[in-house]
Amino acid sequence: MPTAAANIGVVGLAVMGSNLARNLASREGNTVAIFNRSYEKTQGVLDAHPEAGFIPAATYQEFADALQKPRTAIIMVKAGAGTDAVIDELVKVFEPGDIIVDGGNAYFPDTIRREKAVRATGINFVGAGISGGEEGALTGPSIMPGGSDESWVTLGPILRSIAAIAEGEPCVTHVGHDGAGHFVKMVHNGIEYADMQLIAEAYDLIRRGTGKNPAEIAEIFAEWNKGELESYLIEITAEVLRQVDASTGAPLVDVILDQAGAKGTGAWTVQTALSLGVPVSGIAEATFARSLSSHPEQRVVAGALPGPGEEFTVPADQVDAFIEDVRLALYASKIVAYSQGFDEIRAGAAEYGWNIELGAISKIWRGGCIIRAQFLNRIADAYAETPDLPVLMAASYFAEAIGRAQAAWRRVVVAAAQAGIPAPAFSSSLSYYDGIRADRLPAALVQGQRDFFGAHTYKRIDKPGTFHTQWSGDRTEIEAVDTH
Ligand code: NBP
Fold first, then answer.
1. Do 37 and 162 sit in the same domain of this protein?
2. Where do the 6-phosphogluconate dehydrogenase C-terminal domain residues begin and end (predicted)?
3. How open is the CA angle 66-71-76, to the nearest 5 degrees?
4. Residue 145 falls within a domain, yes or no?
5. How is 9-59 classified by DSSP, letter by letter?
């Protein structure tokens, strides 16, 4: 039996697992045991990285024997059946008090189920969202762990040692119990969808409105990256737009097929939001925009449908002003997308009984992950000032920013509609903004309609109680039994 020399282990040595294992091994005090279902991968990682001092294991039993107690193992395998298979094996060789961490992209209800099942054995189970892709796994990801307080005692220092650092603080916090970490990671990805779609709409409007080429637009994004929009996504957008295709000499963006893929986390965010009754319209439009793009058979047929007819051209003397309008529209829409995402986290926490500190979440997204941005400091400030803020964008900093941007935002949405340029995330974000701030909504009429066809009843603004109008009778109003 090998001596238990490792303080942490990694199961699954594909790109994410091997990079995370190397990251762990590079930090002072860590000795890392590694295991992969097929041993060739373990051997490959060992051969390629002798400097890491990995302790290889050929079986789950050897892996368990190599770990100091409480044993701590991070699973980085294909989410779904692979995760369940590994958990089943680890539970056989681990003991009560040990800790199993799933660092894959699990759907949070699976994490809730797994945590409950594993907890029954006395072993701790922690679902941890890890963001930052393969580069982040190696150099420092943003980590969103759930699980018990007990496991956090052991796990906290280890995860802090490998996380990205933003402004001196590690990008990891104990998000909440059971599935809270994977829930927050899911919403992170949903916000990422919205942010990417908004940037894509800004690019499209500038390109079609001003005729600037991708390299010129790259310069605009690079400039924007110096101001309030500063973020990883804006930075890489400039890089992508600058790239020239080696085989054709054309801008790379012009030779990439315009059908956006998705791995499902955006859809999960929207499905969950629908169940929770939280309007995440920006994330939903971004997810649908990818779906729309990926139906070439429909797009070919619909290509014959009429548009507005006239070419959209911004007059030369208004180009700079138009670009500034687009920048402001992007900023305002981005505030809406983040506000909606945090609303979903707030609602999820209430539904599942998680004590999630929203300001701490914005801080751990400042480094390592795809949506890292300066802007997240402003979100942290807003929650520090008012921890139970009902709507993030109502915080004074964001209210002021939207106030500054809204005239431009409206002009851009109008221009897009008139020009026949799709801007679903810009326009739905503006509609959300106008909806949430409205003094009175036509929801009153919807309630009337519901009462008419289904006797669903309504409440009145002037007195308590629940009411029904006898639509098919004499149309007098009666007090109804409140079924809600
Ligand atoms: P993959 O998602 O491609 O999974 C491959 C790994 O899963 C291999 O180690 C494979 O072992 C193992 N595996 C499978 Br498949 N079925 C298994 C089973 N039944 N028992 C044991 N092991 C099994 O790896 P990845 O791209 O490195 O991602 C790992 C996790 O990290 C995933 O959940 C992913 O969603 C998540 N993630 C990925 C990224 C990213 O940027 N790629 C970012 C954030 C999170 P084998 O070698 O024996 O086949």
1. yes
2. 181-472
3. 85
4. yes
5. EEE--SHHHHHHHHHHHTSTT--EEEE-SSHHHHHHHHHH-GGG--EE-SS
Annotated binding site for substrate: 105, 131-133, 188-189, 193, 263, 290, 450, 456
For a ligand 1 pocket test, name from 11, 13, 15, 16 the mutation site with the most ligand atoms within 8 angstroms of its C-beta: 16
Q: By residue range, what is the domain housing residue 340?
A: 185-437
Q: What does the alpha-carbon distance between residue 379 and residue 398 come to, in Å, rounded to a whole number?
A: 9
- Tell me 325's DSSP state: H
Tell me how crowded residue 450 is: count the other CB atoms within 10 A of its CB: 13
Q: Which residues partner with 170 through β-bridges?
A: 165
- Report the pLDDT value the prediction gives residue 3, as an integer from 0 to 100: 76
Query: Same domain for 335 and 449?
Result: no
Q: Does 32 fall in a domain?
A: yes
347: helix, strand or coil: helix
How close is the Cα of 111 to the center of ligand 1, in Å? 16
CA–CA distance, 95 with 61 (Å, rounded to integer):
12
Please indicate, yes or no, if residue 189 is contained in any of the structural domains.
Answer: yes
Identify each DSSP E strand in 304-376 by its residue range. none
In this predicted structure, the answer to whether residue 93 has a pLDDT above a threshold of 90 is yes
pLDDT at 483 over 60: no
153 and 227 fall within a common domain: no
24: its two tokens: 């762990």
Q: Kindly report, residue by residue over 423-468, the tens digit of the pLDDT.
A: 999 999 999 999 999 999 999 999 999 999 999 999 999 999 999 9
Cα–Cα distance between 10 and 34 in angstroms, integer? 5
In this prediction the pTM is 0.96
Does residue 141 share a domain with residue 88? yes
Calpha distance 36→63 (Å, rounded): 10
